[in-house]
């Protein structure tokens, strides 16, 4: 994205002069206070709203085209699962909507449920699951079409700390196995951003700007030990300092 801006019809300047290049297989976390334009940037990348200035290209094409080709998937904090549908039907819904034959749908559904550790839960209904398990199902559903770009808007914000850390590790595992999938992840949690990212994108509000992009050059796989290292605290401090200005 090159000098991308978004002014809503009511005059709100949500994003100003945003410049960012994300490479294949990167994991970028966006942090910033409420209203700094994180969701607006995601909506523009997903082709759900147009930028009002600048150039934006996603996977070598326009955001709308990339979305049409099913190369982008979304995960939100709210799990948005269908309450009456078994897990296998929930995760295969994107394929059902596209008319993929049942046999192939089921095979893909089982593949992604296994990826998130829920292979024995295909026939269970969402209400029988904990919050963390529901989030795993949402992630499985997003992965079913093998997206090249995964957009995650505060996915773990409603989870307790232990579940959150477990899911962070699981997500990193899935991302590492894929090697090519790029993940863009919004969080308010600086610790989470540093733990997950190859780079942290720090935004400031009024008007929403990318104020700094901080490299986290710690190799993967990262383990709980990383959370206790002095480097970890030092990156957390660095991101927090930028957020304060
Ligand atoms: N459809 C809209 N019309 C007008 N203004 C909007 C619209 N959507 C968002 N805004 C405004 O644009 C600014 C950026 O909003 P956005 O939701 O992108 O921020 P955010 O960083 O994602 O916030 P949060 O962390 O609370 O989700 C805010 O001032 C918001 O009120």
Describe this structure in words.
By secondary structure, the protein is an alpha/beta fold. The chain folds into two domains: 2-71 and 148-244, 3-Layer(aba) Sandwich (Rossmann fold); 81-146, no CATH class. The chain is 40% helix and 20% strand. It has nine helices and nine strands. The chain has helices spanning 38-45, 63-68, 87-97, 102-115, 131-143, 161-178, 190-196, 224-228, 230-244, and strands spanning 2-7, 13-18, 27-31, 53-55, 72-76, 149-153, 182-186, 199-204, 209-215. Strands 5-6-7-3-8-9 form a six-stranded mixed beta sheet, sandwiched between helices. Strands 2-1-4 form a three-stranded antiparallel beta sheet, with helices on one face. The longest helix is centred in the last third of the chain and has 18 residues, at 161-178. The radius of gyration is 18 Å and the shape is globular. 39% of the residues are buried. The model has no long low-confidence stretch (mean pLDDT 95). Residues 2-226 form the ABC transporter domain. This is ABC transporter ATP-binding protein.
Small molecules (ligands, ions, cofactors) in the structure = adenosine-5'-triphosphate
Secondary-structure element order, as H and E? EEEHEHEHHHEHEHEEHH
**CATH architecture label of the largest domain:** 3-Layer(aba) Sandwich
| Termini gap | 24 Å
CATH homologous superfamily placement of the largest domain: P-loop containing nucleotide triphosphate hydrolases
* Rg computed from alpha carbons, rounded to a whole number of angstroms: 18 Å
The figure for the number of domains is 2
CATH fold node name of the largest domain = Rossmann fold
Q: Percent range for helical residues?
A: 25-40%
Strand order of the largest sheet: 5-6-7-3-8-9
Pfam families: ABC_tran (PF00005)
Keywords: ATP-binding, Nucleotide-binding, Transport
Protein name: ABC transporter ATP-binding protein
Domain ABC transporter: 2-226
């Amino acid at each position: 994205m090159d000098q991308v801006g978004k002014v809503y019809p009511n005059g709100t300047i949500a994003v100003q002069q945003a410049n960012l290049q994300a490479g294949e297989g990167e994991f970028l976390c966006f942090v910033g206070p409420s209203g700094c334009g994180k969701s607006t940037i995601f909506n523009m990348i997903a082709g759900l709203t147009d930028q009002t200035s600048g150039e934006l290209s996603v996977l070598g094409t326009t955001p709308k085209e990339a979305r049409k080709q099913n190369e982008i998937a979304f995960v939100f904090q709210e799990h948005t699962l269908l309450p009456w549908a078994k897990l296998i039907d929930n995760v295969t819904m994107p394929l059902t909507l596209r008319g993929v034959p049942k046999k192939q749908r089921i095979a893909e559904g089982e593949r992604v449920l296994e990826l998130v550790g829920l292979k024995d839960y295909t026939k269970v209904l969402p209400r029988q699951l904990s919050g963390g398990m529901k989030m795993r199902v949402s992630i499985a559903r997003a992965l079913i079409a093998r997206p090249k770009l995964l957009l995650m808007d505060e996915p773990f914000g409603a989870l307790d700390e232990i579940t959150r850390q477990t899911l962070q590790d699981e997500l990193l595992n899935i991302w590492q196995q894929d090697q090519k999938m790029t993940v863009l992840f919004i969080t308010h949690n600086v610790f989470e951003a540093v733990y997950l990212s190859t780079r942290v994108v720090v935004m400031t509000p009024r008007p929403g700007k990318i104020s700094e992009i901080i490299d986290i050059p710690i190799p993967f796989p990262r383990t709980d030990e990383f959370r206790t290292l002095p480097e970890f605290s030092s990156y957390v401090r660095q991101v927090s300092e930028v957020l304060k200005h």
